[in-house]
Specification:
By secondary structure, the chain is an alpha/beta fold. The protein is built from 19 helices and eleven strands.
Length: 471
């Protein structure tokens, strides 16, 4: 049945691609992009056998075209050695909604300025509440790359593969196994960049910094070693660590030293992390005020500068990473480059742009919010206004309403994509990634990695309760 479904999909691509044993050969590169719209719809919304077959075709066609998921590890280590020309900060963009359309917009904005240093990412929590497993996310990004004529490495990242402090305290091995299982799924799908976040286990009640960071550093090293033992041939997955939980105490150079002492002692001679996430004053999604507006965030750019320089100079890393930045004012983004920030994570503003876009029918937003009143009522704080509650909780409606957003008219989706493209173009310009495509292609190895022929439907994965995980 699975091969019958694959044959049916391949028949729609006659003269464009052909299956040769367990590979795809592209016969007509000019006609393939226009077929991506239908193919990715099967990969996201089709029956299980069609999903598996469409995802396989997208993956293998991408491999044939040289559009390959890749690790940014070597690029960041070269940044740490000062071997990458120019000053820029790599944007890591979390796409929660209309991922195919949003990724197309990002590729269009990147191609106009010859940018290659950008990352598409999805967090552990987002995988659950957006109802998109890693294989679906990768398929959407690769299909978008084909559709927009991209060639070269594509960086796709597992963001905040985070340990829940509450779950770890109750059942540590079960929580670690959940992260290991997710790592296996993610790497198998093509997420060759993984941000390990065990900063939730930092214990500030301990008397010394080494003791405070001990569990964080040891578990991050153990999970790094686990990743290293499951990498595809020729791939060194880029692993990120984190020393300060976003939304809590700002990080210090002493925190970094304490973390790295424990981490390096544990990881030994194996390849370690390529970057370090720190806390500088932001929070995920921003702080929403009673009228629904977002409070002004205060980032300590001096902390970013000092820790980025220290991470490069003393530990050979690409630098420091900033989370929770998409809701900052436009005037702030160029400061990341000035501070030498390695990578900045951007998420909630893109979600807000889609939900609030004029092309989205008011009836759809109304239905989302009514769904939240019933299904997310336990997240509402006693003093929350409707505006505060809906802003904070509406991410939980993304999965249940995914198909309705996919089913928006073509002109509505195109309008949303155009608005996203303008936003990406501004951010990419402010972060200085113009002209980075050549360096990415020169430094980054993107070996061929092939997926086995689909032998059934997509693998069923039990959904997670993600309460308490960052996004």
């Amino acid at each position: 049945m699975a091969n019958d479904t694959l044959d049916k999909i391949l028949k729609t691509l006659t003269g464009i691609v052909v299956r040769r044993d367990d590979r795809i050969a592209v016969l007509d590169e000019t006609r393939l992009p226009e077929r991506m719209d239908a193919l990715i719809e099967e990969a996201v919304l089709g029956e299980d056998a069609a999903k598996a077959a469409a995802r396989w075709v997208i993956w293998e066609a991408s491999q044939a075209l040289g559009i390959r998921p890749a690790s940014i590890h070597a690029f960041y280590m070269a940044m740490g050695r000062g071997e990458v020309p120019g000053r820029f900060t790599v944007p890591a963009i979390n796409l929660r909604m209309l991922v195919y359309d949003a990724a197309r917009a990002a590729f269009r904005a990147a191609r106009r300025i010859d940018a290659g240093a950008l990352i598409f990412e999805i967090a552990r929590s987002e995988i659950a509440y957006t109802d998109q497993r890693p294989a679906e996310y990768v398929s959407a990004v690769l299909a978008a790359a084909i559709r927009e004529g991209h060639r070269g490495p594509v960086f796709i990242q597992g963001d905040h593969f985070q340990a829940s402090g509450k779950k770890y305290a109750a059942a540590p091995e079960a929580e670690l196994q959940a992260i290991r299982d997710l790592i296996l799924e993610a790497v198998g799908a093509g997420l060759y960049n993984i941000d390990i976040d065990t900063s939730t286990l930092v214990d500030l009640a301990q008397p010394t910094l080494d003791a405070q960071q001990k569990l964080n550093s040891l578990l991050c090293a153990d999970l790094t070693a686990f990743i290293r033992s499951h990498e595809p041939a020729g791939v060194t997955v880029s692993v990120g660590g984190e020393i300060g939980e976003v939304g809590l105490k700002n990080s210090t150079p002493e925190d970094l030293d304490a973390f790295m002492r424990g981490y390096d002692a544990r990881i030994g001679a194996a390849a370690g992390i390529s970057k370090i996430s720190i806390q500088t004053g932001t929070s995920h999604g921003g702080v929403v005020l009673p009228d629904g507006s977002i409070a002004k965030a205060a980032i300590d750019f001096d902390v970013l500068k000092v820790l980025s320089e220290k991470a490069r100079r003393e530990y050979g890393l690409g630098g420091a990473v900033q989370h929770g930045a998409s809701t900052l004012p436009e005037s702030a983004f160029h400061k990341f480059v000035e501070a030498g920030t390695c990578e900045v994570h951007l998420a909630t503003a893109f979600q807000s742009l889609v939900i609030e876009h004029e092309a989205v029918p008011e009836a759809l937003r109304h239905d989302m919010y009514e769904w939240l009143r019933t299904n997310a009522a336990d997240e509402r704080k006693p003093k929350d206004t409707d505006a505060q509650f809906f802003y904070k909780a509406r991410k939980k409606a993304i999965g249940p309403f995914k198909q309705r957003f996919w089913n928006l008219p073509a002109d509505a989706r195109a309008s949303i994509g155009g608005s996203l493209e303008k936003t990406f173009a501004f951010l990419f310009g402010q972060l200085g990634i113009a002209g980075t495509a050549a360096a990415v292609k020169t430094i980054t190895a993107a070996p061929e990695v092939h997926q086995p022929l689909p032998s059934g439907g997509v693998k069923s994965v039990k959904g997670e309760n993600v309460d308490g995980l960052a996004d």
